[in-house]
Amino acid sequence: MQAFDYVAVGSVREAVAALKNKKRVMVLAGGTDMLVRMKGRVLTPEVVVDVKGIPGAGDFSAKSGLSIGSAVTMRQVELSAKVREDYAAVAQGAAVVGSIQIRNLATVAGNICNAAPSADVAPGLIALRAKVRIAGPGGQRTLLVENFMTGPGKTALKRGELVTAIQLPTPGPRTGSAFVRHTPRGAMDIAVVNVAVAMTLAPRTGKCEDVRIVLGAVAPTPMRALKAEMLLRGEKLTA
After folding, report:
1. Are 95 and 83 in contact (CB under 8 A)?
2. How far apart, in Å, are the Cα atoms of 50 and each of 9, 95, 128?
3. pLDDT tens-place string over residues 69-94
4. Dihedrals phi, psi of 226, to nearest 5 degrees
5. Of 178, 39, 2, 206, whose CA–CA distance to 96 is shortest?
6. Please, are residues 54 and 27 in contact by the beta-carbon 8 Å criterion?
7. Which of 198, 126, 197 is CA-nearest to residue 166?
8. Which string of DSSP letters, residue by residue, matches 31-56?
9. Are the CB atoms for 164 and 56 separated by under 8 Å?
10. b/e map of 138-176 (b: 16 or more CB within 10 Å)?
11. pLDDT tens, 159-181?
């Protein structure tokens, strides 16, 4: 592993200042992917900025919608009864990431910032209209997760910016979601393909009122199956 400077920040302001550094800077939250790549010299940051100590980074609330702080782990999301009930696609995606040991360190925010096309929580987040809250030199902004991942390993983050939280709206009535993935081994593997669906049924007819289908690992970024969505809207679902 190449030598690097380690900076543990205690506020968003400190993090932004550290990330504006002209050196090669990377954010450390869980580090389960980043540290492996650093050991293999695939990534060679000169400065690593640890954001786990930022107040609010560990906040995890489902009181008004769902808010996932930047340091919230996959395991927390996987085990949350509220997330499993109202945001099932996200909980199911988190539950298949690596092993329990990995999920106790890996963060949801890190998974989308890593921007792998096969990221397991990304399809569920996109299907459920999640947004990322971003802080940077210009202040705060929000962006749909759908528009956040721009290519393999690439995001819409600018120099000096970091993700502070992920926010999901409260699902409407008669709305459900689900996530599945296919891997050769079934566990501890990267998805060959994964898919999340969020669907809302009409109150009287039971027909598909709205649907969002998101595929992962089949394109440079997770993608909506727009034609399939159009075919389902207004139709009564059958076996």
Report:
1. no
2. 6, 25, 29
3. 999 999 999 999 999 999 999 999 99
4. -65, -40
5. 178
6. no
7. 126
8. -TTHHHHHHTTS---SEEEE-TTSTT
9. yes
10. eeeeeeebbebbeeeeebebeebbbbbbbbbeebeeebe
11. 999 999 999 999 999 999 999 99
